[in-house]
């Protein structure tokens, strides 16, 4: 028994603080005390199962990889993104347009769709934040797959804040942003030594932003502009952009569904394309004229 191992000295020879040997009565008292202590010691090693479960350490938290999915097709993914997808435990993914990156996921990977699309009922960002924290808190490594690059209009700062508050580690994996790639897919660069010496990138969702800040910028790239294109054109016209400024609209850049429109700023306002433009980027600036490949600038 545990009590017998705990007390190796013979009971009869227990020494009092004063140093004299025990009498028989005192020995019986010591035996009772020893038995009580041995029972208490044994009980300490036999915790109830509920108490044992409560005292079990929580699982270590998994890492959330905030991954840029690029334009959609697999051949535009970074090597690191592809490797992470191929070994993923769980993938929380956006409305990616092209589904190529999802084809890299192993059969065992849990898929959680959290896509948002302008004009359609979608999951709210706080709910996405909560999902990421819950999955990481289970000790699982999570791939948070975003279209384009996490650095550009991806609401990644909200997810960073939630993960940090919950003590969940995270890592960025950059992707190719359509703001940079779509012009190339349409046949022109964003900068040119004479007519495109700088550019700015903004969102078409915020019509109340300071459009005058773009008055001196030769090239403006607007993401998520499909539903507000004429209004954006008027905003730029109001801050002294010329009516004949060239505009290029690129829908579903880099995919098999890519479409391109070229027109003037005045035409964007008066006669925009009738087609559903989402998802698209719009380049305002004469550098976009290089995409016509007719020698005009």
TrEMBL record:
List, in alphabetical order, the Gene Ontology terms for molecular function in this entry.
Answer: uroporphyrin-III C-methyltransferase activity
The Enzyme Commission number assigned here is: 2.1.1.107
Q: Does the keyword Cytoplasm apply?
A: no
Q: Where is the Tetrapyrrole methylase domain?
A: 64-267
The Basic residues compositionally biased stretches are 27-36
Region described as Disordered: spans on this chain: 1-57
Record NCBIfam families: cobA_cysG_Cterm
Q: What is this protein called?
A: uroporphyrinogen-III C-methyltransferase
Species in which this protein is naturally found: Dunaliella tertiolecta (Green alga)
């Amino acid at each position: 028994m545990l009590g017998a191992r705990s007390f190796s000295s013979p009971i009869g020879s227990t020494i009092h603080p004063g140093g004299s040997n025990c009498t028989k009565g005192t020995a019986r008292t010591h035996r009772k005390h020893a038995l009580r202590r041995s029972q208490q010691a044994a009980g300490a090693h036999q915790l109830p199962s509920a108490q044992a479960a409560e005292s079990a350490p929580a699982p270590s938290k998994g890492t959330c990889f905030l991954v840029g999915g690029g334009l959609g097709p697999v051949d535009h993914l970074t090597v690191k993104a592809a490797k992470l997808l191929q070994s993923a435990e769980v993938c929380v993914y956006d409305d990616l347009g092209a589904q190529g990156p999802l084809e890299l996921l192993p059969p065992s990977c849990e898929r959680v769709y959290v896509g948002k699309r302008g004009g359609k009922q979608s999951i709210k960002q706080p709910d996405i934040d909560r999902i990421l924290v819950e999955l990481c808190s289970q000790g699982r490594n999570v791939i948070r797959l975003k279209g384009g690059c996490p650095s550009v209009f991806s609401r990644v700062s909200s997810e960073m804040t939630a993960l940090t508050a919950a003590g969940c580690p995270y890592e960025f994996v950059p992707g190719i942003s359509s703001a940079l790639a779509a012009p190339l897919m349409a046949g022109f660069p964003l900068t040119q030594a004479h007519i495109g010496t700088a550019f700015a990138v903004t969102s078409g969702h915020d019509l109340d932003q300071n459009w005058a800040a773009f008055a001196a910028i030769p090239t403006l790239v607007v993401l998520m502009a499909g539903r507000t294109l004429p209004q954006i054109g008027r905003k730029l016209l109001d801050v002294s952009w010329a009516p004949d400024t060239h505009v290029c609209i690129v829908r579903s850049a880099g995919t098999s569904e890519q479409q391109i429109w070229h027109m003037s700023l005045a035409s964007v306002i008066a006669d925009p394309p009738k087609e559903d433009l989402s998802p698209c980027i719009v380049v305002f600036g004469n550098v976009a004229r290089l995409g016509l490949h007719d020698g005009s600038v």
